[in-house]
Structure formats: structure tokens, C-alpha cells
Recover the amino acids of this structure.
């Protein structure tokens, strides 16, 4: 396979504070030669100022002044590296409880989650919270890295007991493919190079696993969902050119001549021509950015959705979502929020909180009131106009929403349609 | 594996174009910040594809420090002419003449930070609510923290600790009068991705990126081009060197590298073996370890 055909793997790193996430990423970048001389000099300079004798690997990712002064990761930092096999985007997310919303952000686009566990602490509440979020957001693959093995003399027994503990907990989650790797990120064991100090581990080191794990696509190939971003009107009416509807195909494969329905209006037509950007195409597929023309001139605006007539989504003003509250300010009772769903925007109210999930026990609490930061609740929403939706587990593009506070314009919650 | 998948470059392209189209869909008066460097050239190329066969609907905005490479200005004017798009040029010299900005003094003085004043004035005067830029997250540690849709308050300032979470591909561009957004469609691209794309799409770029002979001065570990704007010290010597530029900015701060690479293919080969980042030769980032964060908070690109 040629490099030009390489795929992109987006992954998130999550775990407890001080489990060594930033160290792991620093190690991955450093050992895969993705760190440059001047970045290294810069980091050396700060390490010295902080009084460290060794290079502080976390400084490669902690970019904000407050972060390296306090030694914590505040925000999602994106890192990039390429090997001859793949291009990688890492979302390094904060471990602290008050930054869980940033993990949500990073996790929403990831194909894979690295869950880091400190071998000394084992499975903690934060491990459970992050694993649960990864499973809730339907990240298809997870690699559990049991770190700091050097502190337990690379003991297979200690490793096995943590693996068991995690598996027991993960039974309650819907994670498809979970793998385990014992490592020492600080010393570099099983990150890029296979460790010689853990002969009992028969698997591959982390980088090799990242390079070869099948990328489970986040894209649904069955259902054609085309949220319209905008409309291009013909340059001149005389040449009988059709209007072009442009956007990014959310899911499915669309072909010339397909019979389509526009929602919410219900008007129908046929695909006349398809363009993959500036090139004409017989068929296009998600996640291509495309434009299309139809046989008939029908009324379509931004926020409408074009679907295949034989396979239509739900159209509803009442939806149930698993909502994660992301903002410091709790939800206001009976308040209206802007709701954003694909390219569509309107208003919604939170009608009812059905239950809140206790992150530790994963039990449902039906008596819960109020929505506070980091709460994960099932809620009922009512919107002012119909939304065109699928279940999140079937379709991430048409199954996800965000809520925006009317008074501040800030994003306050993210939800998955259930 | 399914036959319906995109390679990494197609996926990055589709993502960038989705964001450009969102900028058009969500804002009243979006513009492209055009520096004349390769990233903003790629951005303009993407905008052309995003709205094909229509013309690019965005105005191109250039902040002119007055300390330019003549090649950059020529390239800018040609490109704007060929595309038939609207353009606005903001002048740092004018900001200085009006007393809005004050020229730095000394040997290493530049007009780099002064661009902030000119840019913010221009945004306010033209009621721009969305400025699309070619910044990438791999360029600098603080840029790695940027959102695709990045909010600026009515003073044009960025608050990195209080950014809106960005989930899936749903972008919240809601804002109040006087506030604006910076939008970065090629956030997820790296330097090598940009070059691979330039090669694949056969995009024209200024000659400054290719190896050429130039009069230079060795300063702060890089080859600074000799120009009328440079303050030479007695010990400094102007010599002729075969160099090229990895990034393009103000002529007073853009260091060249010794290179024989005279084609895009050779440049890609050269960069793949490089041990220094592209901004390693930018004097503006060398001032302190948080130089970029400090400028960005105030409203820099």
C-alpha cells in the first residue's frame, strides 16, 4: 500500500491525574522522532528553570503558561505524528474532574481510546468515568495501558489482577474491542520498542498496535443522510444550470439517479448530477464534501436534509438524549436553549430529567434533580420545529446535538440521541 | 476493508471544506486572512473548491507590515486578480502614522506585534464577524489548543482557558454584536500534509519557497534576508547564500535555511529529514517561551 493511501487514526488519551498521559505522548512523539530539535531545546530550557535534571516529557504537550507552571493539562491539546503506516491525531485530554468536558470534546471524534491506568492505583473512579464516556460516545476500539510497571518490578501478577478488575467493570459497558498493554511510559517499555523486561507479555508494543489495529469507521455506510450547508445559485439562468446544494455527506453512498426526499418538507426528486468538490462523480460517499443538483427545482434551505426515499430517518419534535452537562452554570429550569443538530439550528426546552447516571456504580438515579457540570443524564427535549434524527448508536452525524445558552451563546451541553 | 474510505489527505480536505462552508453558512461577513504564505494559499485553494463553480465568496484580507518581500506582494496581487475576488489591505504604516501603533526600537525591532492593532481595527471598521486563517495546530504549542471555531470578545481577545467545547462536527459560531470568530479550517494539517497537498493539487506558490541566491545576514542562528528595513551592527556581515524560506512573514523576522531544493518534490524530501520545526527560524516566536500565547491572547493571527 502506498503512503498516499494511508488512513487517518484519531485517538484520545485519558486517565487519572498523574497517571502519566502527557509523559506517554511525549514518549510516543520522542521515540517516533516526531519531536524537533528546537522543541527539545525549548523543553530543556523550561525543565531546567523548573529545577528538573531530566527532560520533562509532559512539556511537549502542555502548551499554556498555566499548565507548565502548575504541571497539569487544562485543555485538549492536539498532537500529530506520522509513521510510514498511518497518520495520527492525538487528543490529549485533562485528567482532572473539572475538565471532563474537555475529554468529551476529544472523545467525540476519536476512533480509538487509550485508557491509562497507574499500576499502583489500579482502576479508579476517574478510570471508570473515562471508560464510560468512551463507551457512551461509541468509540469502537480501546487500548488499556497499565503504566508504571517499573514500580512493581514488572510483575505479571499485579498486571493480571488489574486487567481482571478492568474487565469486570467493562462488562457493564459496550466496548467492542479492548486490548491491554503493560508499560512504563517514562522508561519507554512497550511504547515504541518491545520491552525486554516483560518477556511474559506476548503482545505488541503500543505504536505497533496503533499502526495495525483495524480502523473501525465511525461512518454509517447504509443510510444516506445529506445535511445541506448552503445553496449555490446558477451563475446565469439562461444556461439552464440547476441550483447546487452543497454540504458534507453525513453517511451512506449516494448515486446518480437516486430517488430522494427532502426533509422536513417531504418533497421528492431525483439526483441529476453529483460532484465530489470540483469533479463530477457517478457515486459519492461519506464523509466526502459534495455538491448535488436535482431534476426538479424544489425549495431547499440550509438545515434541511436530503435522504434516499427508500430509507428515511425519524422526524420528531420530541427526542430523548443522553446529555452531558459541560458548563459551570447548571441548567436553568424551563429555560430555552438553542439546539444545534447537523447544520440545523432551532430552540428547545429540557422537559424532563429521566435519570442521572452514578458514574461509580453506573446505576440510574431516578430521583435526581438539576443538571450540573459533568452530570450525565437521560433527558427529554422538546424542540420548536421537527428534527431529522437517527439513534446515535446507528449514526453519529444525525444522532448528536449540542445545546447553547441563549443568554451567553456558550455551548452548555452535548447529547446523544437514544 | 470497505472500498468506501478516504485516504488521510482526502479526509483532511473534506473536513477543511466542511468548515469553510460552515463559516459561509453561519456568518454575515466572513473573510479569509491572506498572508501570502503557503498555508493561506492552500486555504484559498480549498475555498475555490468548496464553492466551485461559483467564485470564492470571501473577501481576502491582507495585513501589510510595510516590511514585505516584494515577491509576496506581487504574488498576492496576481492571485487576487486571477480569482476575481474582493480584497482589503490593512496597513501597519498607517496605524503607526495615526499613532495607533508604536514602532519598536533596537536591533531586533519588528512590526510583527504591531499587526494586531491594524488587524483588529480592520475587523471593526469593516464589521467582519469571521476571519478565516491558515493556522495549524502543529505549528506551535499554544496553537495546538485552538478550536476550529475560536471566539474573540469585543476587544478581539482570546481566552484560552475558557474555550467552548467542540464536539463531533457541530460548530457553535453564535456571537454578540462586536465579537468575532477566528476559524481555522486546516487546524489538523501538518507542514508535510500542506506540502503533499500543494504537490497533489499542483498549487502555485511564491518563488521564495524554492532555493535561490540571496543577500543575507546570520543572526540568532538563522539567515535573515538583507533589506532596507534591517538595522545592521558593525560586526554583522552581508553575504550571498543559496537559501529558501520554510515560512513567510515580515521580511525582518523570516529566517531562511540553506537549501538546494528547487521543486516541491525536493522540498518534501528535505522537510521529511528536517530536525527543526518550520517556526524555528521565526524570530517572533523566539522572544520567550510564551511569545505566541501572549500575542494570541491579544488578538494575533
Amino acid at each position: 500500500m502506498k503512503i498516499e493511501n494511508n488512513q487517518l487514526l484519531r485517538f484520545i488519551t485519558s486517565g487519572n491525574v498523574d497517571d502519566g498521559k502527557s509523559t506517554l505522548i511525549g514518549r510516543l512523539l520522542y521515540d517516533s522522532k516526531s519531536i524537533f530539535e528546537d522543541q527539545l531545546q525549548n523543553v530543556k530550557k523550561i525543565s531546567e528553570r523548573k529545577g528538573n535534571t531530566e527532560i520533562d516529557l509532559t512539556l511537549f504537550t502542555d502548551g499554556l503558561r498555566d499548565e507548565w507552571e502548575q504541571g497539569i493539562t487544562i485543555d485538549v491539546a492536539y498532537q500529530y505524528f506520522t509513521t510510514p503506516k498511518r497518520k495520527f491525531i492525538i487528543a490529549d485530554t485533562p485528567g482532572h474532574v473539572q475538565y471532563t468536558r474537555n475529554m468529551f470534546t476529544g472523545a467525540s471524534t476519536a476512533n480509538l481510546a487509550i485508557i491509562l491506568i497507574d499500576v499502583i492505583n489500579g482502576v479508579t473512579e476517574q478510570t471508570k468515568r473515562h471508560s464510560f464516556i468512551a463507551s457512551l460516545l461509541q468509540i469502537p476500539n480501546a487500548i488499556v495501558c497499565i503504566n508504571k510497571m517499573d514500580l512493581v518490578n514488572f510483575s505479571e501478577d499485579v498486571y493480571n489482577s488489574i486487567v481482571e478488575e478492568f474487565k469486570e467493570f467493562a462488562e457493564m459497558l459496550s466496548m467492542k474491542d479492548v486490548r491491554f498493554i503493560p508499560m512504563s511510559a517514562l522508561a519507554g517499555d512497550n511504547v515504541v520498542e518491545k520491552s525486554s523486561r516483560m518477556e511474559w507479555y506476548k503482545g505488541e508494543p503500543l505504536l505497533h498496535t496503533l499502526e495495525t489495529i483495524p480502523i473501525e469507521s465511525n461512518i454509517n455506510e447504509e443510510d444516506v443522510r445529506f445535511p445541506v450547508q448552503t445553496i449555490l445559485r446558477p451563475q446565469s439562468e439562461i444556461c439552464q444550470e440547476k441550483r447546487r446544494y452543497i454540504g458534507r455527506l453525513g453517511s451512506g453512498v449516494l448515486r446518480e439517479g437516486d430517488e430522494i426526499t427532502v426533509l422536513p418538507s417531504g418533497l421528492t426528486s431525483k439526483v441529476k448530477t453529483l460532484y465530489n468538490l470540483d469533479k463530477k462523480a457517478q457515486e459519492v460517499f461519506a464523509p466526502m464534501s459534495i455538491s448535488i443538483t436535482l431534476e426538479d427545482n424544489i425549495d431547499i434551505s440550509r438545515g434541511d436534509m436530503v435522504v434516499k426515499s427508500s430509507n428515511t430517518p425519524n422526524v420528531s419534535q420530541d427526542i430523548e438524549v443522553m446529555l452531558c452537562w459541560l458548563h459551570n452554570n447548571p441548567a436553568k429550569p424551563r429555560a430555552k436553549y438553542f439546539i444545534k443538530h447537523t447544520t440545523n439550528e432551532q430552540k428547545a426546552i429540557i422537559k424532563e430529567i429521566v435519570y442521572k447516571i452514578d458514574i461509580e456504580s453506573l446505576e440510574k438515579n431516578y430521583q435526581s434533580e438539576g443538571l450540573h457540570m459533568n452530570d450525565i443524564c437521560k433527558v427529554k427535549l422538546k424542540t420548536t420545529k421537527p428534527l431529522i434524527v437517527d439513534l446515535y448508536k446507528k449514526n453519529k452525524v444525525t444522532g448528536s446535538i449540542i445545546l447553547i445558552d441563549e443568554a451567553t451563546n456558550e455551548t452548555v451541553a452535548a447529547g446523544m440521541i437514544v | 476493508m470497505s472500498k468506501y474510505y478516504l485516504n488521510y489527505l482526502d479526509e483532511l480536505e473534506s473536513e477543511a471544506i466542511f468548515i469553510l462552508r460552515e463559516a459561509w453558512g453561519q456568518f454575515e461577513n466572513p473573510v479569509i486572512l491572506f498572508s501570502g504564505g503557503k498555508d493561506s494559499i492552500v486555504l484559498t485553494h480549498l475555498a475555490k473548491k468548496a464553492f466551485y463553480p461559483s467564485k470564492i465568496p470571501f473577501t481576502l484580507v491582507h495585513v501589510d507590515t510595510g516590511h514585505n518581500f516584494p515577491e509576496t506582494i506581487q504574488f498576492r496581487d496576481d492571485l487576487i486578480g486571477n480569482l476575481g475576488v474582493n480584497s482589503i489591505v490593512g496597513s501597519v504604516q498607517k496605524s503607526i502614522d495615526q499613532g495607533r501603533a508604536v514602532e519598536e526600537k533596537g536591533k531586533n525591532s519588528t512590526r510583527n506585534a504591531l499587526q494586531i492593532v491594524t488587524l483588529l481595527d480592520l475587523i471593526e471598521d469593516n464589521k467582519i464577524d469571521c476571519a478565516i486563517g491558515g493556522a495549524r495546530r502543529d505549528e506551535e504549542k499554544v496553537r495546538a489548543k485552538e478550536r476550529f471555531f475560536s471566539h474573540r470578545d469585543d476587544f478581539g481577545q482570546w481566552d484560552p482557558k475558557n474555550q467552548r467545547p467542540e464536539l463531533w462536527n457541530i460548530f457553535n459560531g453564535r456571537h454578540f454584536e462586536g465579537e468575532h470568530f477566528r476559524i481555522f479550517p486546516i487546524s489538523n494539517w501538518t507542514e508535510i500534509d500542506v506540502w503533499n497537498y500543494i504537490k497533489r493539487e499542483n498549487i502555485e506558490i511564491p518563488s521564495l519557497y524554492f532555493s535561490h541566491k540571496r543577500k543575507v545576514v546570520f543572526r540568532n542562528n538563522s539567515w535573515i534576508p538583507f533589506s532596507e528595513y534591517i538595522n545592521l551592527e558593525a560586526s554583522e556581515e552581508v553575504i550571498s547564500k543559496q537559501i529558501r524560506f520554510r515560512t513567510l512573514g515580515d521580511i525582518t523576522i523570516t529566517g531562511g535555511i540553506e537549501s538546494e531544493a528547487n521543486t516541491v518534490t525536493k522540498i518534501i524530501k528535505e522537510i521529511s529529514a528536517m530536525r527543526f520545526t518550520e517556526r524555528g527560524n521565526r524570530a517572533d516566536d523566539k522572544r520567550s517561551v510564551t511569545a505566541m500565547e501572549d500575542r494570541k491572547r491579544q488578538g494575533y493571527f
